[in-house]
Amino acid sequence: MRKLCAAKLLGPKRVKSLQPTMEREMSKMVASITSSCFSGVNVSRMLCCLGNAISTSAVFGGSSSTQKQRQEFVPLIKEITKAVGAFSLVDVFPSSKLLRRITRYEPKLKKIHAAADAIMEAVINDHMAKRSTKHDQDDNNDEDLVDVLLDLKEKDDLRFPFSNFEIKAVILDIFIAGTETWTITAAWVMSELMKNPDVMEKAQKEIRQVVFSRNDIGELNYLELVLKETLRLHTPDALTIPRESQETTVINGYRIPAKTRVIINAWAIGRDPDYWTEPETFNPERFLNSSVSYKGLDFQLIPFGAGRRICPGMHYGVAIVKLVIANLLYHFDWELPNGMMPQELDMSESFGTEVGRKNDLLLIPIPYHP
């Protein structure tokens, strides 16, 4: 399933096909910010809305027939993410039937999941009905991720069962693991740029010197350094997904028995002074002339994990963050509200399934006219 997602759904080729969707939603956001220029903008909330808009359009398509489902689905995803990330005594004492009855944690989660499941089932059925009327057409210009998943289901040449159940599981993964992760990263990039005006000036200068189009994003070398440094300091998933050792092994003198669940603290690794000079300082230049990347080849920087279990949505998330930040820095200058100085900007972290900002990022956009 992981290989399927990496190759068919979230790989470089598929991400490229989603560029028009990303740019369309990005243009809407730029227009919205322009209408609010010189007044406060909640950047955190704005990025969250953008993430939901891109995900729903990419997954469900832009058909008016699925508009109602898209509007109902996003709040449910937020509820699921909140419930999964919240502390529960049931997680500490999973065998306690009394706690399960007292907390009502599982019934609540099941109720939310059932509602989300019904919406996804309706969307899948809607797509199947449309496909039956266009069976002989060879036009996939409006193909969304549900269509891609249905193609895989109809081909029936996979090594594992692939029914509507698996399709819905993939959709949930894309929304829960994909959308919030990159919006959190984009918010941290903007936060660090506001905290470090000299870095903001360099990044903005580079972006505005490049003829801005989707094909130019790859030429923004300094923006790449900024993204690496942000992912080092603010790894969205501070703790990696648990893995179970298949056999007893020894790592750095520590004996890990077989069938032990292992969790890696990626957040701590990114701030380890044994690997990073002045680890608490935001310094994108540390990656100049450095081969260290976030693609799982260098274990001192593993925001997406590494090896066969590396996050399949890496290309998707990185592409969106770069596009978003490039647009925000190209079209606007940014100021902190109420005369706040950069060093006064609150950088407190929240704690949950992902490590985002504790408080929303509020900024004032100033339109840029080249």
- Please identify the oligomeric state: single chain
**Run of helices and strands:** HHHEHHHHHHHHHEEEEHHEE
Q: What's the helical proportion of residues? A: 40-55%
How many helices does DSSP assign? 14
CATH overall fold name: Cytochrome p450
CA-to-CA gap between the ends?
47 Å
CATH level-two architecture: Orthogonal Bundle
The CATH superfamily is identified as: Cytochrome P450
pLDDT < 50 runs, ≥5 residues: none
Q: Report the average pLDDT across residues.
A: 86
Number of domains: 1
Strand order of the largest sheet: 1-7-6
3D shape: globular
Name of the level-1 CATH class: Mainly Alpha
Radius of gyration using CA atoms only: 22 Å
Largest sheet: 3 strands, antiparallel
Residue share in β-strands: 5-15%
How many DSSP-defined strands? 7
Structural class: mainly alpha
Protein name: Cytochrome P450
Organism: Linum tenue
Cofactor: heme
GO molecular function, one term: heme binding
How would you concisely characterize the structure shown here?
Helix content is 54%, strand content 6%. The chain has 370 residues and is mainly α. A hairpin with a 2-residue loop joins strand 3 (249-251) and strand 4 (254-256).
